Amino acid sequence: MMSLFSGARVIDPCQGLDDISDILVKDGKVAAIGRDLTSALGRDVEKVDLRGYAVVPGLIDPHVHFRDPGQEHKETVISGCASAAAGGYTSVIAMANTSPAVDSVETLNYVLEKGKGSPVRFCSVGSVTLGLKGEVLSPMGSLAEAGAVAFSDDGFSIVDSEVMYRAFEKAAELGLPISVHCEDPRLWGDRTMNRGALSDALKVKGVPKVAEEAMIQRDILLASKTKARVHIQHVSTALGVEMIRRAKEDGIEVTAEATPHHLILTEEVLSVHGSQAKMSPPLREARDVEALREGLRLGIIDVIATDHAPHSEEEKGRGLLESPNGIVGLETAVPMILTELVGKGHLSINRMVEAMSCASAGIFGLPGGSLRPSCVADMTVLDLEARWTIDADRFESKGRNTPFDGAPVVGAVIGTALGGLMQPVANK
Fold it and tell me: Is 205 within 8 Å of 191 (Cβ atoms)?
């Protein structure tokens, strides 16, 4: 079967492509890309007119929490995948901090089976340690053989450096990266907000930046000594960006991600949004936001990842001190990045696409990330001119916990294509 997606602005940084083009898809893969392909085709081709829209390689989020198994009242694999598709994603990587944790082949098989037939390519990490306790390594080899695409104890740093060193040794042997949450729990405070002048004024202990920075430096060093690949999750400080820059210059195999909320918001929004803007690591100061944006623009920060973390209304209603960390992000990432970064000149749309698709495909060895001929035909269709208002009540996710509810935005996801099969976005 062949399909022709015609007349769109095709943006593919892997090919240096940003032009009006047609995309011919055959048997789930890109067969050809170029102008005026229609004239060379017969009648047995399904045609999809995308004039006025932009088409990019399917978006990939390497950092989501779907809470399944164990906390299905917050999210399930099914609802999480629906949320991802609504947000324009064609692939996601779920974290292991479920209950039980994804620290066994049995649990990994459970989540992968639930993801089959979903509107996105559902992938999962395996945990680094049993029960995410940071003490005993998980059966990393068996998890890799069963389909884990990486390893992570996200939610926690592994404090014991010997355990972390052995984990990096094993990951290097397996050829898979470890995605690390860098936050020293011995410096956490109450995990409510950034420690600084604002927290002092509010008489809240908060989390100092050094809690993150010290672990970034340690994990970069351990990865360099073991020749492992380390992916630094949700970087939030200016010094963290600088450490990663230096490590890359030294040839260490380090990659990094930043979230839309850390790229857009500062700690001051806590006074407006309260627990809806509480996450780990916490929102930082304006100079950290500027450093993250510049790091992303330059490629020091490789990836934009959502850290999609749904919680129930009751949990987030417990107040700033008692509510859990995390916000949802799959359905707000594209419009917020287009509006606040691309629309305001902080980031080119080509760099946005690279950071939301191409980079993750390369780092985690996933299909997609480009629309070159022979690549899997995973695509995201965007209306770059659409003006609308984010409404959390219309999310496909079970979570409504976001500081972006009610935000006016420019740019919307129209649909996705998974293996060339077009899927319009729900509620649009």
Answer: no
The residue annotated as part of the active site, out of 153, 302, 307, 378, is 307
CA distance 67 to 73: 8
The answer to whether residues 163 and 191 touch, using CB atoms and an 8 Å cutoff, is no
CA torsion sign for 406, 277, 102, 139 is positive
Structure tokens at 393: 């009540």
Task: Read off the pLDDT of each residue in 25-43 and give the average, rounded to a whole number.
Answer: 84
63 among the known binding-site residues?
Answer: yes
Distance CA 118, CA 95 (A): 17
Q: Is 273 annotated as a binding residue?
A: no
Q: Can 307 be counted among the known catalytic residues?
A: yes
* Residue 394 assigned as binding residue: no
**Cβ-Cβ contacts under 8 Å for 317 (sequence gap 6 or more):** 275, 323
Per-residue pLDDT tens over the stretch 116-136: 999 999 999 999 999 999 999
95 secondary structure, DSSP code? -
Tell me the chain's radius of gyration from C-alpha atoms.
21
**74 Cβ contact list (under 8 Å, min separation 6):** 67, 310, 311, 312, 315, 398, 399
Q: Is 417 helix (H, G, I), strand (E, B) or coil?
A: strand
- Determine the angle formed by the axes of helices 209-226 and 161-174, rounding to 10 degrees: 50
325 is in an annotated binding site: no
Would you state the structure tokens that stand for residue 52, as one six-digit string?
Answer: 């006025």
Return the pLDDT at 427. Answer: 55
| Token representation of residue 93 | 């990587």
